[in-house]
Amino acid sequence: MKFSIDLKVSSSADWLEVVMLDFDSFLKDHADCERKASAMATSLIAKYPDRELIIPEMIETAIEELEHFQQVYSIMKQRSVSLNMEMEEDLYIKQLMPLTHGGTPESRFLSRLLLGSVVECRGCERFK
Ligand SMILES: [Fe+2]
After folding, report:
1. What is the 72 CA–ligand 1 centroid distance (Å)?
2. CATH number of 13-127
3. pLDDT average per 10 residues of sequence, the chain (128 residues)
4. pTM above the 0.70 mark?
């Protein structure tokens, strides 16, 4: 079962203008985001193999995000855009990560799931 989070603040309209100014860079960054999302779902399975309730969802998510990567990569190839050699750190994720540290193992587990959901919801909001 999938749930969604209501974001408190919408992305600025300026975001789309910036994307359109350098669409190829956006594609490269977006490809990185899809690769990271798939890897995050896979890493949650690796880190929490005993959390059987989330494993089917994480498998689905990993595959879905890899398919998104495939779609973006296909567009990149049509435009002769190559992947980044190194994936840059996302500033906003870097700022949110400390919130997932500390506390009990259960709260860290839930915080990681929540962080992944927030990041995914923001991505969906921007693509609408
Ligand atoms: Fe995605």
Report:
1. 10
2. 1.20.1260.10
3. 78 90 94 92 94 94 95 97 90 86 90 86 80
4. yes
